[in-house]
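Report of the visiting student (M.T.), summer placement. My assignment was to run the structure pipeline on a short list of targets and document each run. The first record concerns PiggyBac transposable element-derived protein domain-containing protein.
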Amino acid sequence: MYWQSATRVDCVADTMALYRWEAIKRNLHFSDNSKQAAVGDPGYDMLYKVRPLLTSLLENFQTIPMDENLCVDEQIGPFKGKKQMKQYNPKKQKHWGYKIFVLYSSGIVYNFEVYTGKISPCKGLPDLGASGNIVLSLSRIIPDNISHKIFFDNWFTSVDLQMLMEKRKIHCVGTVKMNRLTGCRFSEDADMKKRGRGTFEEKETLLNGVPLRAVKWYDNRSVTLLSTFASANPAATTMRWDKKKKTTVQVKCPRIVTTYNRGMGGVDLLDSLIALYRTKIRSKKWYHRIVFHVLDLTVVEPLLLYWRDCRVWGIPKKDVSSLAKFKAEIASCLCME
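After the run finished, the structure tokens were exported:
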């Protein structure tokens, strides 16, 4: 469309001819295909075609100084083609695509790993299953004994994981499934519902020298959290919508819930910014979708660092570039002779 007369975009069409762009896309490679190991060989890498690109990006991301509060979550690189790595996640805006596990803070990425169907245990560490192993893998770059705090949801959280992290002085908090809290009993949801919204209970134990606190809070439904540093008290109040009264009401909220929400606040920021101006280029090559996704990521990453610096320096919001302006300036620089 950039080259058609009706929809021509001069800054693109005048910089590169259509045939030139098609030739670049057709021959875009990051690895020597002749050196790729065969399927089944010990050295086989499903991401071999893009491994040098991913490695280069990770080396640069890991030079960024880390914030105190970190979180682990997954994102989806949209893709509906035929590839074994494609995953389905109904909770994401784009249901089909490549699953990418990310370690980040306020949207700023420090480490990531593209899911290829299997997550092996980290060398020298116990096997905690796929959910625990990926947290251990991503968190290897976090320095020990500095009291970083890491947040994650109930797919990742387990007692064994939090105990291992606490031994490195990395404190954890996350929502947790009740079947992962062996021997920990709370009141049934029906009983807590009768006592009213905002009801919560807390259980505490010391396991192998590691303090663990589990809190169950009932709002419209129950949620259970596990932490090695946060607790229910001092509790606060939060405004929640009441369907019967058709208005907002004050509901008691444990401290661990507000701590968790604050720590996970930047989880959706990165995804939403990437989705605003996602690179949508059709291609028959499966790895192009990964390439275009990480290119979008490399644009949003410096934007978030720029916004953070603007806040530190007190620059007025009206003088701060938006994502659209930021991408336009990058494109303009790339098109300069």
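The chain has ten helices and eleven strands. The longest strand covers residues 69-78. I thank the supervising group for their guidance throughout the placement.
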